Amino acid sequence: MKITVDFEECLKDSPRFRATIEEVEGDVCELESKLDKLVKLCIGMIDAGKAYNAANKQFVNGIRELAQQSTKDEVIESSLTKFAESLQEMINYHTILFDQAQRSIKTQLQTFVKDDLRKFKEAKKQFDKVSEEKEAALIKNAQAPRNKQHEVEEATNILTATRKCFRHIVLDYVLQINVLQSKRRSEILKSMLSFMYAHLTFFHQGYDLFSELQPLMKQLGGQLDQLVVDAAKEKRDMEQKHSTIQQKDFSNDDTKLEYNVDADNGIAMEGYLFKRASNAFKTWNRRWFSIQNNQLVYQKKFKDNPTVVVEDLRLCTVKHCEDIERRFCFEVVSPTKSCMMQADSEKLRQAWIKAVQNSIATAFRDKGDDGEKLDRKSSTSTGSLDSGGEPKERSLKGESALQKVLAIPGNACCCDCGQPDPRWASINLGITLCIQCSGIHRSLGVHFSKVRSLTLDTWEPELLKLMCELGNKVINQIYEARREELGARKPQPGDPRHEVEAYIKAKYVDRRFIRRPSDEELRNKVISLSKQEKRLSSSSEHLPPRPPPPTPKLRPGSNVSGQSVKSADSGIQNSADGSREMLANTPSNNSLADADAAESPPMPMPMPATLPPPSPCKEMVFYEPKEYSPGLQLYWASCARSLPDMAEALAHGAEVNWVNTDEEKRTPLIMAVQGGSLVTCEFLLQNAANVNQQDAQGRGPLHHATMLGHTGQVCLFLKRGANQNAADIDEKTPLTIAVEAANADIVTLLRLAKMNEEMREAEGPYSQSGDETYQDIFQDFTHMASNDPDKLNRYQQYDPQRP
């Protein structure tokens, strides 16, 4: 109800006026309350609508995913895609509707409440105040005594001024009331009408959208009836086939396995066979074998890449095996290896033997008809067996890593519990683990053990070489040296987990079974390691000629006699050679060690070769240190490329970033660079060595590797986050040094790394991989440094005085 106030009545300030004012104020207060409630309800409705839209979007995404999954059924895919698009349009219409509701209801009514009702409240405050002042002036004027003329005049003047002010304010107040009463009608109706028009538009758009969709829906309705009929027919056919197959006799079903050289899929024969593994335990595993493209291959799972057993069946023969305990066994023998397999029955064995023989005969016949065609077929078949046509070495990298690592003595069983055929490894310790022990190692934290799968993870060449140079036998000789002496029982396969966990923690965390060396033993070990390069140099005749190493000396003023040093050195020589024997006896270690030593011309030991000062590898000699520590052992073992001695030093508590204050603050990682071994650097980095720690000349490992021209080490350090912008005390960065030395390989690596870093910074803080070319080139250098290091020995060492 619209309530208006008469202007003439307000000047009289009559009881009727006051009653009207009171009614208006109550009405406005109630109006404000209702409008506030309506605005809050509108906000709640909008929030609920947004939540509905969000849930609806997820539902539509689910429809799209179902359509993508049904790509083989064109009817379902196209229909679901069209429905998803239509529902997405409805979500857009809903969004527009809620936006309009926010503008029309929430925004307009909130503006009306905040602006117009606020003005009314301010006018009311002024009116109430001046009313009180007028009432006070009337009372004072009435109380003025007749005989006090000055008080009468003062009261009269105040009353006159107050009445004048009251008339002015009451007229403004009445004007504000009438304006508000007039405006409330238009504001409320305008906002609600706008909201209703938004609904009208929404339903019109939805009607038009689904009117366009209606023919498709009718068409699908007609197709659906036929689909129901077809489904019922297919169900009857399936039930008939099911009952027919159930009535068959499967006792001789293995005879159905036949050789078919003309099969459409190129698979002449396939089926399950047991295969004897080539490990020390000769375990048997069930695998899916097939004869295809003149090859015998098998798979563990269908999604796995097939493993080729025989590359060319023309070069193999097949025979029965009756001299083993298992039944139904036969063997396929090729010039390089043999594979023992077991069928489920005698008939299946005969079928497989016949299939292999037929394949051999067919291959020879095809060879006689068209040898070139067969050769091409054989070469392409290898690529077809590997996913994406990638080289077999890459596609089988998990299996290849497993075979290489398990070939090391002691690695065929878990290092901690003896479980055969381990599939996990601790890369910083260099040991193999079963799945239970690998989980316990993970719980120790990466500062104790870094666990990786031998079959599931990708193995970089330098890390694989590191695993092949250590092994369970070497590490257990260190970490279990006193186990039998202390009477500790080593866990066995099948022991409770808590017992195995307690043993592993005692072994690696508490290091309870390690034999601590005496001061004299440690001294002899360090002296022996400092002299070990002479022996290494004499056995490396295939390497480029190098300057002779400096003769080790005692620190001037030392009270140790020369005779004692000689005897100590000769005594420890055998022990040092013994530690090297652990690597020499490893089947694959000789080739790995030679490749590692040939990575770059190793610097003479115990310290680098002499170069004209101020060469980065200036001549250094061995002085008697103030004290012998595991850190010093790690320091010289890194230089001597002796991983067992390095592992022993770390087990005895050596700090991996130990600083030799007597030798320009060099670290074990810098000494590993001087030694020229990529695997030694990798071992230290896996054990948390700081790749950017500098010596007294301000040079980090990257500086030293650049100066010595060790391209493989430069590649490794850049991959591990080395700072290529660091400058030494001469303000030279690795790139400056590489440019001066004209080492194109290292310059290329450093510039590529810098460019890749700039690209990643430009792409933003969440960039991950960088440039693909950079990744490919670094991968090529990594493989070359580990597998063919002679290709990188193309440059001289850095010499600052070279013209």
CATH class of the largest domain: Mainly Alpha
Number of helices: 25
Query: What's the story with the biggest beta sheet?
Result: 7 strands, antiparallel
Class per helix and strand makeup? alpha+beta
Question: What is the name of the CATH architecture of the largest domain?
Answer: Alpha Horseshoe
Termini Cα gap: 104 Å
Helix content: 55-70%
- pLDDT below 50 for ≥5 consecutive residues: which ranges? 367-397, 537-620
Residue fraction in strands:
5-15%
Whole-number tally of structural domains: 4
- Reported by name, the CATH topology of the largest domain is Serine Threonine Protein Phosphatase 5, Tetratricopeptide repeat
- Number of beta strands: 10
> Could you name the CATH homologous superfamily of the largest domain?
Ankyrin repeat-containing domain
Task: Report the average pLDDT across residues.
Answer: 76
- The rough form would be described as flat
* Cα-based radius of gyration, to the nearest Å: 45 Å
Membrane topology: Peripheral membrane protein
Biased composition (Basic and acidic residues): 367-378
Protein name: Arf-GAP with coiled-coil, ANK repeat and PH domain-containing protein
Subcellular location: Cell membrane; Endosome membrane
